[in-house]
Amino acid sequence: MQIIPAKTPGFVKSLFPNLVWSVNTGKKELYLTFDDGPIPEITEWVLQQLKNYNAKATFFCIGRNIEKHQQIFKSIVNNGHSVGNHTYNHLKGWKTATDLYIEDTIKTQKLLYPDIKMLFRPPYGKFKVSQSKQLQKLGYKIILWDVLSYDWDSSVSKKMCYNNVVDAAKPGSIIVFHDSIKANKNLTYTLPKILEYYSKRGYSFKGL
Ligand SMILES: [Zn+2]
User: Fold this and answer.
1) Are the beta carbons of 111 and 67 closer than 8 angstroms?
2) Is there a catalytic annotation at residue 146?
3) How far apart are CA 26 and CA 94, in angstroms?
4) Nearest to residue 142, comparing CAs of 164, 125, 158?
5) Model's pTM, two decimal places?
6) Cα-trace Rg, the chain
7) Catalytic-role residue among 86, 151, 178, 179
8) Is 35 an active-site residue?
9) Who's near 54: CB < 8 A, 6+ residues apart?
């Protein structure tokens, strides 16, 4: 069930102006993001799809997955994509003490390469104000989204997933996908179609 709207309402964005919801641009550019990897085969498949369209994207990686799949992580970076921090253990911010949450994030940051930008996306898109404040103090840019594909939701059909994106995306949109096992069914249908649809209309795909 789609509880959160696929398109983030303007009033939500204006309540939290310090968070990044979309990129302010008049150009035909989209910002695809992939959360929860790296995962063997799935992340590699995503990289190949992006390559087919000369598209760049941003991968919000889970620390424990980077540790398990270091070669795949390396190929994300070597392919010129951006990467961001998605905590080490995919923590639920509202259920985790702030000091533990920050510790978990720093543990992941150590697995990222030193010259990588400080981007952070909270798992589930939720965290405490104290956590977001601390992260911003540490220098993180916190990236939410403008469009949710709902690729992970098994009650959302492949076509609905595709429509969620096409109905909501506009220049500068930050769009959420997942390179995860759960999302794989919807992702393998939707991603190539999105890349094709927007490429044909003169869009380019960029990393954050
Ligand atoms: Zn996640």
Assistant:
1) yes
2) no
3) 35
4) 125
5) 0.96
6) 16
7) 178
8) yes
9) none
